[in-house]
Amino acid sequence: MANDITLSSATRTNLLSLQRTTSLIGSTQERLSSGLKVNSALDDALSFFKARNLNNRASDLSTVKDGISEGISVITAAVQGLESMEATLKQMKAIASSARAASDSTSRQKLASQFNELRSQVDALAEDASFNGINLITGETTRGPDTLTVKFNEKTGSSASNTLVVNGQNMSIGVNSSGSAGQLSFIGSAMTSGTTSASWADSTNYVANIDGFIDNIDSALTIVRDTAQQFGTNASMLEIRREFTDNLINTLKSGAGDLVNADMNEESANMLSLQTRQQLGTISLSIAQQSEQSVLRLF
Description:
Elements: H1 9-34, H2 45-101, H3 105-128, E1 130-131, E2 134-135, E3 147-151, E4 163-167, E5 173-174, E6 184-185, H4 193-201, H5 206-260, H6 264-297
Parallel strand pairs: 5-6
Antiparallel strand pairs: 1-2, 3-4
């Protein structure tokens, strides 16, 4: 049977001190490697779960911010389409004015052909002004314009009432006589390619016919400009909400970090202090053992 090892009081005290120091060094190394002073609920349950809730909300709001950014892109695409449509309508008006001043029917027919080419581009611009499958000014005949709904918070269900709804407007050029609200509508059959040329070539009524086109272009320009202004207001609102949401996310993450992040300067200083203590403890233990051996040699 092996003999029991008997430790003196001084040796036992030094060993216990070294064990505590080694344990503290291990904890400090973990904080330095992870950058966190609270790595699990065992370290500080209250701070750990508070930080997790803050980070979870920040993550949810990041999704909301992505939705806001997409909404801005959808509206921006629509506004760009409207700006191009406005430029096209201005060209159409200029051509119509030139046709009104032309004295011969041949010149007016050529201008009517140019007018019709631009007219077809208005619908094409409306159809192309989409983002991620959402089009607020679609000119498609199979369906109306889309509606954009943007959430401003992470709540769901009945609590998710803080939203912006942007109703699209039909910016196609209709061939009906009146057109629905928001639709760019020109005078009935005069908008077909053939009858446009015929009405402009009419030596008796071409002035009145062309004046009708010009009046309708002016109405269309008003609709396009008003719609672009409304969409611009919506985009500005979304920009404000995106900036607010981004700042809120940063605040939440900062708050979570304050709860669990380690002070690296402080932890580095602690590590140096503990390593020095460990070295001194080892030296102290060695001295105590040497003293005990010196006493034993006396017997």
